[in-house]
Design goal:
It holds the Pfam family Membrane_bind. The radius of gyration is 14 Å and the shape is globular. It contains no helices and 7 strands. The strands form 2 sheets. The protein has a 5-stranded antiparallel β-sheet with strand order 2-1-3-4-5, with no helix packed on it. Strands 6-7 form a two-stranded antiparallel ribbon. It has one domain: Immunoglobulin-like. Helix content is 0%, strand content 49%. It is mainly beta.
């Protein structure tokens, strides 16, 4: 079953000391995005935003943490603020896939 619905994802990667930041933007079916290797030397905190490109509504936002071990294998910590409707899956030593579990738009309260 295919769908015409596409999702965009923006991941902002912060590297504490020098306040270095990389922004990675992808859309459904894109190939893997490459992140600056210099940022991969330390523990990294990210913010993540996912939106439906048809409706422009956000379906998820939050954060997660990752770092690399001595062999270059990514170690992740989804922490308390990872979007509940997403699943983070290792797709290789240094690759992540984000799976959408539910595409319900976020509702904001005033």
């Amino acid at each position: 079953m295919t769908s015409d619905v596409k999702f965009s994802m923006t991941v902002k990667i912060f590297n504490g000391e020098k306040q270095e930041k990389v922004e990675v933007n992808t859309i459904t079916d894109d190939n893997y995005a490459v992140v600056d290797e210099l940022l991969m030397q330390k523990e990294i905190v990210t913010s993540i935003y996912v939106r439906n490109t048809n409706t422009r509504e956000y379906i998820g936002n939050g954060s997660f943490y990752f770092s690399y071990d001595a062999h270059g294998v990514a170690i992740t910590d989804e922490g308390l603020n990872f979007p509940k409707n997403l699943k983070l899956v290792h797709a290789g030593n240094n690759r992540f896939d984000f799976h959408i579990i539910r595409a319900t738009p976020l509702r904001h309260t005033s």
